[in-house]
Amino acid sequence: MTRYSKEERRKRLGEALSENPFFTDEELSEQFKVSVSTIRLDRGELGIPELRERTRAVAQEAYSTLKALDDQELIGELLELVIGERACSRLVIDESMVLAKARVARGHYLFAQANSLAISLVDAPIALTGSVGLKFKRPVQLGEVVIAKGTVLKRKQNKYWVQISVSVGAEEVLRGDWILFAMEDVTAIREREMEE
Amino acid sequence: MTRYSKEERRKRLGEALSENPFFTDEELSEQFKVSVSTIRLDRGELGIPELRERTRAVAQEAYSTLKALDDQELIGELLELVIGERACSRLVIDESMVLAKARVARGHYLFAQANSLAISLVDAPIALTGSVGLKFKRPVQLGEVVIAKGTVLKRKQNKYWVQISVSVGAEEVLRGDWILFAMEDVTAIREREMEE
């Protein structure tokens, strides 16, 4: 990649961050082939706050969008949510989430993060999981930061097909396909059988 | 079914309970076409304690068999465990496990019960989930008693195929197929990719 002039770089930096506010200064420094302090200076000039601030702002907006879940029902920290389209959450694996012997994250924590993200994507007051196909690709260690990204692949009436990809850094650790059902009220689910 | 003489019935009752200690007196009463109090009398004569006592005795034995999990890592109450063969656990859905709006059990609690039961079936100090295919058949309500039954379908070297069927009463609410990997020690999983 060519190095840009200062003006060009700042323009592109602003564009990059408005597309993906979760780039770290380190990642941007690599991308633009300048030092981290240059990136900080650029951000200062552009009035773009540091990553933590940006995450908080985006997360507040994302949480206010939640429909089928309450705030505390989303496992992990919600980073982005466009209902019916895409969503993203973050989970840091702490001591309480690892198996005593294996010291790796228990499968159901990763499942909970992914499943609640899938539910958040459904545009209805209530969403139920119908079926799931999951593949765990590698164990997740204590302290690792797990990012789950969800995409609505297809929607037909009250049925949603959602794909969730869970990664640590650039490495995918879990991938799954969900089929979910949107429901308008509680009474509907009392007798209902979920059919694929 | 024919009604048996008292002696014959007691003999068969003893056999039925040694095969499945979780029959309730009501179920036995239906099965043997006698009243519940007759069943209680029969049990008294045979020296077979009530269901709760039987469950406790079986559970103690089951917990002492756990290998890939610590006691508190098994989600639900372990009722039976023959490592490498079959296992059974029980989970009562309480307020903390239901979705605020839908009032049904959150998917990841049922997953956690099933997944930890699948792990308990692996004959190794460490077991990891590779892939899972799940089908949620109907929502589970607050207060319902959920029984998960696991069976090892096949085993090839360190790879296990396990089927888990989760029911409320006679109704299946979740069914899933697991592929798991047995590991002898922690170092083996640090670099390892799980392959199907």
UniProtKB/TrEMBL annotation, chains A, B:
* A GO biological-process term: negative regulation of DNA-templated transcription
* Keyword check for Lipid biosynthesis: yes
User: What is the annotated signal peptide range for this record?
Assistant: none
UniProtKB keywords: DNA-binding, Fatty acid biosynthesis, Fatty acid metabolism, Lipid biosynthesis, Lipid metabolism, Repressor, Transcription, Transcription regulation
Write one Gene Ontology MF term: DNA-binding transcription factor activity
Q: What is this protein called?
A: Uncharacterized protein, possibly involved in aromatic compounds catabolism
Q: Which organism is it from?
A: Desulfosporosinus youngiae DSM 17734
